[in-house]
């Protein structure tokens, strides 16, 4: 695929992020100073590669549209090393990486610092798989006496408790009920 193909795809992704829609062929033809036919041909190529799909007269993002380039190598967090110059390939879809069961998954924005020592910060997005069973040591979203919280599940004196991952907070011991709502399966953090 040409450099122009990738530039147009990048522009479509940016526009979709801002506008939550794919612009019409006419809009793009005007903005890109090309014919509507040229835009339609590009859309047809994008459809062939799984970036767009057509429903009636509307073009919609398809799975590959949300894929991001995955570098062909790891990035060292220790000693610096030379990395290959290859830009990587398209194909990493964050949703597919984080979510195994879409119909049973939900995202929550984390508020508070009680899980900071587990690397979970205020403002992070917790990816939860909704289920009522969990193992000791799992980080869970749980209803404690009717109130929801995110903590580590543990047993003390034969009873389940919720452990914060910050020494400034006490262990939560339910007075009446403890119901598991979901298990943490992923975390998303935005640095800017």
From TrEMBL:
Residues 75-185 form the Peptidase S24/S26A/S26B/S26C domain. One of its GO terms (biological process) is DNA repair. This is Repressor LexA. InterPro entries: LexA-like, LexA/Signal_pep-like_sf, LexA_repressor, Peptidase_S24_LexA, Peptidase_S24_S26A/B/C, WH-like_DNA-bd_sf, WH_DNA-bd_sf. It comes from the Bacteria. GO terms for molecular function: DNA binding; hydrolase activity. It holds the Pfam family Peptidase_S24. Keywords: Autocatalytic cleavage, DNA damage, DNA repair, Hydrolase, SOS response. SUPFAM superfamilies: LexA/Signal peptidase, Winged helix' DNA-binding domain. Gene3D superfamilies: Umud Fragment, subunit A, Winged helix-like DNA-binding domain superfamily/Winged helix DNA-binding domain. Belongs to the peptidase S24 family. It comes from Permianibacter aggregans.
